[in-house]
Please model this.
Amino acid sequence: MRREAIWTEKYRPRKLEEVSGQEAIIRNLQSYVKKRNLPHLIFSGPAGVGKTAAAVAMAREFYDDTWAENFTELNASDERGIEVVRNTIKNFARTMPIGDAAFKIIFLDEADALTDAAQSALRRTMERYSGTCRFVLSCNYSSKIIEPIQSRCSVYRFKSLSYDAIASRAKYIADMEGLTLSEDALRAINYVSMGDMRRAINALQSAAVLSNEIKPEMIYEITATARPDEIEALIETAM
Ligand SMILES: Nc1ncnc2c1ncn2[C@@H]1O[C@H](COP(=O)(O)OP(=O)(O)O)[C@@H](O)[C@H]1O
Ligand SMILES: [Mg+2]
Model:
């Protein structure tokens, strides 16, 4: 098989400038990197628009080759519970940053899944470690984050992606993969993506299993007959 990886992973942005759309947010994140300083952040918005991607790309730029040691990604809705999340945060936060970094970065996905009590505990943890750690909390709705946390964070609202944002990334990936992608096919990808880049990339990859020449019918057929999670499974079995 010529497809060697899930494209959403293969084409996960490595630099902030690769994050499509979200220009105003990205400019701010770039200026944090430049100034070597960072407040706590809240990234809110729908799925698949680059919240995790932006956090990872920012960490890569911040730390260069020590990014993996100084950055960690956790899911707040971890079914093992908030205690596991807090212990993981404590273990990560209590050791010094590696290299010349002044702080580490903790990315906490689905922070709005936490109960208010768990968020209060999180707030205390954030305060306790704010000397050596910055938190980036990701959520669908910032209104579900308790006020005492919100007031300690800069809030960035990620938008559902525009046609231009989806199309430019899809074109880039098609180029890298040697695919022909007509204007019609781009419109189809944009239509089925509903502003979600993960969906757009999955639609492109599953169509590419069929042919190097991507036609709108292929995109519509795949997405009409399969749910997004089925499409991901389809790609995996084709590899
Ligand atoms: N704005 C974007 N620019 C480029 N790629 C993106 C963008 N948003 C999402 N992606 C792609 O989709 C995948 C999932 O995106 P992710 O950042 O995890 O979404 P979110 O965290 O907002 O749900 C990423 O690995 C990346 O390949
Ligand atoms: Mg995410």
The chain has two domains: 22-157, 161-238. Residues 8, 11-13, 19-22, 47-53, 161, 169, 197-198, 201 surround adenosine-5'-diphosphate (ligand 1) (CB under 6 Å). The longest helix spans residues 163-176. The domain at 22-157 is CATH 3.40.50.300 (Rossmann fold).
